[in-house]
Structures are given as C-alpha cells and as structure tokens.
Amino acid sequence: MLTALKTPEMNWLHSVTVLICILFLGFMPFESIAIRSVLDRLLGYTEAPDYRNGVGCPAMEELAETMSYCDPSFVHITMTLDSEYLRGSMAAVHSVLRHASCPEHVFFHVIAAEFDPEVNPRVLTHLVRSIFPSLNFKVYVFREDIVINLISSSIRQALENPLNYARNYLGDILDPCVNRVIYLDSDVILVDDVRKLWNVQLSGSRAIGAPEYCHANFTKYFTDSFWSDLVLSRVFGSRNPCYFNTGVMLMDLEKWREGNYRLKIESWMKLQRKKRIYELGSLPPFLLVFGGNVEPIDHKWNQHGLGGDNVKVSCRSLHPGPVSLLHWSGKGKPWVRLDEKKPCPSDYLWEPYDLSKPIRVSTTK
Questions:
Q1: Contact between 244 and 212 (Cβ < 8 Å)
Q2: Segment holding 348, helix H or strand E
Q3: β-strands 106-113, 75-81: how paired?
Q4: Distance (Å, whole) CA 77 – CA 107
Q5: How do 212-213 and 243-244 pair as beta strands?
Q6: What is the distance, to the nearest Å, from the Cα of residue 249 to the centroid of all Cα atoms in its chain?
Q7: Beta bridge pairs of residue 184
Q8: From residue 247, how far is each of 78, 210, 217 by CA, in Å?
Q9: What phi and psi, each to the nearest 5 degrees, are found at residue 37?
Q10: CB–CB of 101/194 below 8 Å?
C-alpha cells in the first residue's frame, strides 16, 4: 500500500481549500452560527494520508471511466454520521483505509440525519471530502420522521437517537445495486484488512452475519413481562438464540429485502410502545428477529464493550485472542476520555487514528 506524504505546503493548500469551501457555504441559506460551527469543525481536522492500492488490486485506470459504486469490485461499508460522533466516525474511516489492502476499492455509504442541528448532509459532504479528498463515498439523507414515532425510551438517552435506527432501513436507503454491505458503528477501529470480513459468506437464507456470544445471559435483554408472556416468549421457537452486537454486521441486502426484515423489526418496535418488553434501544428488535439465525463470524471482528456498560463509564480490558476490530460500545468513548485526561488503557489504541487535530500552517519560506 502506498501512502502520499503531506508537506507543509500541502497542509497550507488544504487550509486554503477549506476556507474557500466555507466562503462558498456562506452564500447558502444557513444561519451564521451554523457557519461558524462548520468552520470550527473543518479547521479542526487534518487531511488524512492518501492511501493507494497495493499489489494485486484491480487496476484503477482501467475502470476509472465506467466504474460506479455499483461496481462488484468494491467493498461496501455503511456508517451513520452526526455531529456528536463525527470525530469517532472519521477515525473509523481512517482505520479502514489505513489497513485495507485495496483502499481505493472501498466505498462508504454515509447516512446523515435530515435535521442534525450542526451538520446537515450538504455540509457533511464538504466536510468528509476535505478530510478524505480521494475517498469513495456517498451521503444519504435519513428521514427521522419514519422512525421517530416507533422509538421508546431507553436506559441511556443516546440510544434513543433516531439515527441509531437507520440500519433498519438500509435496504430502502441504499441503491438496489448494493446487495451486500458491512455496517459499522462510529465508535470502532479496524486493525486488519476489511476485505477479510467482506469475504465471509452468509450461508443458506441468513441475511446477516456477526460475532455471536452464546455465553452471555440472553434473557437479560428482555423484561420479565416478555418472558412471562407465553405467546411472546415462543417467538424463538426451535431457534437457539445468542447475543450479538449490531455495531458490526455483514448484511445481505438482497435477502433483507426479500425477507421484509424492516417490517418485522418495526412490528416489534410497535409492540414495545404498547407493552414494554425490553430496555435497550435498537438492539433487542434485531435479537428478536435474527437471534438463532445469524452467520457466526470470528470474535476478533468485534472486540466490543470497551466503553463500559450503558450506565456508568468503566475501563474494560480486551477479550483474550486475536483482534481485528476494536469497539467502544457502551457509555464511554475514547475521544471524550482522552480529552478529559482520564483515558482507559484501550483508548490509546484509538488515538493514532484520530484526525481531530489543529492544522498548523507553515510560515517558513
């Protein structure tokens, strides 16, 4: 993999480009306070290195004229992006590119909230492009009104964010030609080639694949009223459900669409509004629909729980064994703890991918 080195002159040029972008945005119908917020965010990031394909990758010059994001040579990744988790998302993208054997053949489908108070989708596109000038990506608008009335209260307010539920609608949001995608949360870091995860095959009718944790107490993810209801508790039938974390999933969107899984998830969310059957946010409906029917993926692809539990911030060590993906699921986020000078040991593994650093323009001639 080749990496283009950044010179002081290139950093200066990047700063000028960002300022021109902001001046352009200034003529758009945004409030002045929003412009200042965008300016602060854009100038708060350094430009990522320009990662290029390694040996054995498809020749880009042969595909340049005809290639679109529908091209089968792409690894498709989808992530949500909002102002609160922007820093984590940029670090996640950086980590994917840094370890990819063919970074030019990774395509990011970025889902943004329609009414984010700080970073709307149009501004977001300029922001991502300023940080990753050669990134293959597309920004999609998620209409929060389609899910807002289905969301019930959770044990942590952050879990009630409508954007957390965008993964339920990927089959509708993404172009029909995208029939397979890796979904990643914003608080992950990859330390391995993403194509290895992409190459995992989903067997039979399985629409999703994820690391499973069958030793976890599956019953605790649902309320006593759920388990005491003989009709509801029989939903798993002959399935042997195991806990899996929805922050890292390999999804077959063709099977997803055929199985009407969006509607099945929504039906459980509607029931939750009438009769409280779980406490967490977007996870339990996935467990209800897919528990016991998930393609098991090696645990190294989701070393989760590094953010502690959902109530209090606590430090957790890595699980034993190899690691390909680190996941700060839970309340604590590495960028917050690092800024507060209270990092956990695992947070230092996240820090090298952080691009949120002041741009220093060289004054030397």
A1: yes
A2: helix 347-350
A3: parallel
A4: 6
A5: antiparallel
A6: 10
A7: 248
A8: 11, 9, 19
A9: -65, -45
A10: no
339-365 pLDDT, tens digit each = 999 999 999 999 999 999 754 444 443
Contacts of 59 (CB under 8 A, 6+ apart): none
Contact 13, 21 (CB under 8 A): no
- Report the distance separating Cα 67 and Cα 74, nearest Å: 10
Burial classification of residue 319, based on how many CB atoms lie within 10 Å of its CB (0-12 exposed, 13-18 middle, 19 or more buried): middle
CB 77 within 8 A of CB 194: yes
What is the structure's pLDDT at 292? 92
Burial per residue of 85-114, b for 16 or more beta-carbon CB atoms within 10 angstroms, e otherwise: bbbbbbbbbbbbbbbbbbbbbbbbbbbbbe
In which residue are the tokens 């950086």 written?
Answer: 94
Specify whether the CB–CB gap between 107 and 75 falls below 8 A.
Answer: yes
**Domains, the chain, with CATH or none:** 70-303 (3.90.550.10)
> Does residue 364 sit in helix, strand or coil?
coil
**pLDDT tens sequence across 5-57:** 444 454 555 555 555 554 444 444 444 444 445 555 555 899 999 999 988 88
Q: Concatenated DSSP letters for 35-47?
A: HHHHHHHHHTSPP
Report how far Cα 119 is from the mean position of its chain's Cα atoms. 17
**How many residues would you count in the chain?**
365
**What are the tens digits of pLDDT across the range 261-309?**
999 999 999 998 888 898 877 899 999 999 999 999 999 999 999 998 7
Q: Which residue has the tokens 């965010």?
A: 41
Strands 295-296 and 325-327: unpaired
Determine the longest span between alpha carbons in the chain, in angstroms: 77
Q: Are 181 and 78 in contact, with CB atoms under 8 Å apart? A: yes
